[in-house]
Amino acid sequence: MSTSNAPIVRHSGVAAPLLQANIDTDVIIPSREMKIVSKEGLGEGLFANWRYTLPGGREANPDFILNQTAYRNTSILLCGNNFGCGSSREHAVWALREYGIRVLIAPSFGAIFYNNCINNGLLPVVLDEDAIREIAAACTDNPQTQQPLINLEEQSVTLLNGSQYEFSIEAAAKHMLINGLDQIGLSLQHAADIEAFEAGDRDQRGWAYLGV
Amino acid sequence: MAKNLLDKLLDSHTVKTLDADHRMIYIDRIFLHERTGSIALKSLAASNRTVQRPEQVFCTMDHIVDTHPGRGDKTQMPSGHLFIEATRHSTAQAGIRLFDIGDANQGIAHVVSAEQGIALPGCTMVCPDSHTCTLGGLGALAWGIGSTEAEHALATKTLVLKKAQAMRVTFNGKLSAGVTAKDMILHLIAAHGANGGAGFAVEFCGEAVRELSIEARMTLCNMAVEFSAVTGFVAPDEKTIAYVKGRPYAPTGERWDQAVAHWRTLQSDPGARFDHEIVIDAGSIEPSVSWGTNPQHSMGVSHPVPSPSENPEAEVRSAMEKAQRYMQLEPGQKLNSIAIDAAFIGSCTNSRISDLRAAAAMLKGKRIAPGVAAVCVPGSSQVKQMAEAEGLHQVFIDAGFEWRESGCSMCFYAGGETFGEGKRVISSTNRNFEGRQGPKVKTHIASPLTVAASALTGRITDPRDFL
Ligand code: SF4
Predict the structure, then answer these.
(1) Which atom of ligand 1 is the closest one to the Cα of B134?
(2) What is the DSSP letter of B382?
(3) DSSP string of B235-250?
(4) 3-state SS assignment for residue B428
(5) Which residues pair with residue A104 across a beta bridge?
(6) What's the CATH architecture for A10-206?
(7) The pLDDT of residue A55
(8) Which pTM does this prediction carry?
């Protein structure tokens, strides 16, 4: 599984509920699991404090939902309010991606985390709590077969029972996710505007420029 | 049209309006650290992109470095030196000023950037660290970003920003003795929720904010992110100007005059519109301490641990129950009866010289309770040196504290520094998340005064008992 910003247009997969509010990025990946200067090798550390029996250990905690056979190959997480709050560590998103998560559905997300998702091909879907609870309820009998379908083009989540939920997402974020684009490349197309701004700004706010 | 301060800060940095909600914003300063900066620089180089204006980019060693006296590159975490070496290498290649281990100006990014005059009022500043909003205390528009966004800022000198809504939080009246900026922000988050600032940039104002020192304003803004705000800031005033003057990277001569003239325009105009307003009576704020696993789980130190069963919302109830299980606390237990194992004074929230002075004044001539482990980590090497020149280090040491080199240290566990598994810690830091200070560690966040008072008695203690 890669951490790159691979395009995402439609996705269906096993959905696991982690509905607690305020799941922070320290929980998504504890700092001690970020051992090397790399965006890779982080999937193993995902939810390490909950997923393993001992800190730093690798023995699966059978109580943790993603360790249960019913939730094998989970690629969609159903989350609570403010998912991904806290530390700016992009490792949280890289770890989720490497583990195989492609879609997060939550009533709200941490702001920095949300941007990190868009930059890494992880689709953050915002739905209200009731909708998320209904989706969770519709998938729990047999998560392996009751897979929701997320259609980013149409901005909808469809369940096997026919229920459908529409979500909104900003046009710019949608465009980036569907095409797997890189924001830096997009912004560099505005290089001439940036230079022009800077030239004018140096006249007005010369004090803000160092080393000249 | 009357503009609020957020409008003014954004308008002066808008390169281009991309659509109704997004602008390309010019970034004046970028700060990196060895934890996420090294990854950003490495990835930038790998994609054949360059740092556009290295003279506006700075880097420090703070997150992972060891803080024990006589430190080198070795950290408590076995692979920590890899981050340190990679940072040294990539900053040298990119021509970026690095505040390395052993540098007299090394320290925590958000402490150093203010101290050095790198962060300035009216500047945009970003760092791949969520507490960059600390610099809002100077009247900068400063916020934390991810690594990919850091690459973006380095490669393009800009960021694409979604328009935040403007919130004003007014603290009317005066704080009581023993109550600090830390208590103000904990009070706000406890009353309005850890999610209360989501989507907003928050301007803090009112008499109690004006009265705060610049360092205390930085404490206040530091935790805007724990309120889920994009950032927080305080309009610069004469105190701010006096604070910035003469700092190493601050403008001088004609440019200084030009800067000051601009800074004096940086207030919300009378009648400016805000999307949301909160008003708080500063006099009603008590010294606050957290009881759970999120800063929202905080309350006045004289209160009991709240009862989840009284909360009408099922999700909140279960989060409270889960937090109390983790913290091993029972509803109804008095906060100020809880015994602690350890006390920590440090972090970008509360380890500037004024914090150390306040804590030392309380500790002077006293000893911490037997069995309590206590550590003080100055926010920068310069703070450490100032404290030592004033003899504060001796006060801490005589009281039973360890006196360390500067870094993030036990604010979180990245470098591997911890009081030990499952310990209960009273801490001047900003996050009481599960495992933040090490496996199963139970963190109670509070002001340095409350930390010092608690270290003395061995239980969570109201600092006013010692005033
Ligand atoms: S002191 Fe703590 S909160 Fe501040 S930058 Fe360091 S780790 Fe982050």
Answers:
(1) 4
(2) H
(3) ---HHHHHHHTT-TTS
(4) coil
(5) A77, A124
(6) Alpha-Beta Barrel (3.20)
(7) 80
(8) 0.93
